[in-house]
Automatic annotation (TrEMBL):
Transmembrane feature ranges: 185-204
Species whose genome carries this gene: Achromobacter veterisilvae
Protein name: YrbL family protein
Keyword terms: Membrane, Transmembrane, Transmembrane helix
Pfam families assigned to the protein according to its UniProt record, in alphabetical order: YrbL-PhoP_reg
Amino acid sequence: MNPADLSSGTPAASFQSVFGPLNLDGEVPLATGGDRHIFQHPHMPSLLVKVMDMRARAVYLEARPFKRWYKQYQRESAYRVYLNEISEYVTTTTRPSGVWQVPMARILGVAQTTLGLGLVVEKIRDGEGNIAPTVADLARQGKFDAALSAQLDEFFDDLADAHVVMHDVSASNIACGLNADGKPGLYLIDGFGVLPLIPLYAWSKRLNRRRIRRKYAEMRASLARRLATPAG
């Protein structure tokens, strides 16, 4: 993000304006995932706030009795996902490959909001400052070309090299745009972090690379079917 955004010399960048409590009442999410709403940070153009959708989570757990049973013993409850993502982010961005070199949206921390605890992350944007389209969006718009295909191959090679553990390899979790420094590229915005009780892929870079390649091949096959289906 732009260091000027966090300058203590401007009232708009006070601690409270960044970390809350942030008033999100009445705000419309920029995007909604399986269990979270994504809001524009009310004071920082280069940041987003991810907030848990407790209603969607309750419906999800109601249909899965075993998960509902063991998750009741997790002190962090629904917010375990924040810890998973922060842990993966810290682990991968401190490897010898170099801090900030991993193609992920950066995580700033957590903030209190009127909708519950939020995860504050870097906003990947388009040229107009709006939230950037995902690879899935571009495929739906007929903009998945040879250049993007090659870029996607390199992106997943970079993730495997950095030993990023992903639990959801999806075209909807990859944004194509500019980071807060204005650098264009593909960025992982969701679906990362170790979830299994036995973190096999966190232990073995080789097994993780193999899994990433397999899941990426499945994702490309899904994109190919989507591209082959006429719009409308």
